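Weekly modeling sync, notes
Attendees: S.R. (lead), two postdocs, one rotation student

Agenda item 3: backlog of single-chain predictions. S.R. asked that every request posted to the team notebook include the full sequence so nobody has to chase files. The rotation student volunteered to paste the first one in as an example of the format we agreed on. Action items at the bottom.

Example entry:
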Amino acid sequence: MKLPIVRITGWSPTRLAAWEECPLRCQLQYARALCILCFRGRLMGGFSSPKICDTCGKEVLEKFSHGITVGKNLEEYLLGKVKKLDPEIRNERVRELARTLRGENRRARVRVEHSIVLDRAWRIIDQFTKDAWLRVRLDVARFVPAKVVQVIDWKTYGIDKRTGDVRDRGSTKYDDQMGIYSTVALSAFAEVDEARSTLVFVDCGPRFDPLVVQPALAWLTRKNLPKAQKRWAERAAPMLADDVFGPRPGPYCSWCDYSKKKGGPCSY
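Predicted structure, as returned to the notebook:
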C-alpha cells in the first residue's frame, strides 16, 4: 500500500541532512515517524521516554543509547546535577573541557541544551510555536570575551575503528554542521558579533585530539550573517517544497530500517 505524503513544513540540521541523503527515509522517519517493526503505526514518545508504536504496541529500542547516555551525563554534569563524568568519556581533553564549562556555567557564561526556534526571517519565536520554520538545540553556547559565542557540539561515535581517532579528520564533511550552528547562534544572540563552532568527539581515543574546530576563515561575523542565512534558506527550500519524497539509493540502504530487505516500504 502506498503511504500518503506528509509535507515537511519546518527543518533542522538533522532533518535536512537526512533528506539530502534520502528523501524517502526522511519522510518515513521524521514526517511520519513510521514504526520500523510493523511499518503501519506511528512511533510515539522518544527522548526521555520509550518509543512505542501506536498500532502494534511494541517498543522500539534506541539504537544510539550510548550517545543518549553520555550526552545526558554531560548535560547534567555541566549543570551541576551530577558530580562525576561518565567513565566512558576517557579522553582527558574532553573531561578537562567539561570541567571548565561546568565552572563557567556557575558564572552564567554558558547555556546548556539551549533550544532555538526561528521563523523564516530568522527571528526568535516561542519554542511551542506549531510548524516553526527552524528548530536547533545547541549542546553548549559559550560566551567568551569580545562579543563572541562559541557553539560546542558533543559528538558520540564518528570514530575510526582502526585507530581511535576522529574519522575523516581534515575533510570538509563537518563544515556544514559547524556552519549552521554558527548561523543559528549569531541569529539568536543579538549581543554577540561573531560565532565560532567546535565539534567535540567524546569517544575519541585518549591519545588523540577530540576537537574539530571551525577554521578561522569560516568564523561567522554579523556582517556576513545575511549571506549565510540566505545560503541555508536556499538549501532547505527544496526539502520544504518536496511533495514526492522519492528514494535515493546508496550504500546507506544496507542499514536503513525502511529498506526492502528488512520488510520496509522502500523498493530498495
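Discussion: group reviewed the output briefly. The longest strand covers residues 134-144.
Action items: rotation student to repeat for the remaining queue; S.R. to check formatting next week.
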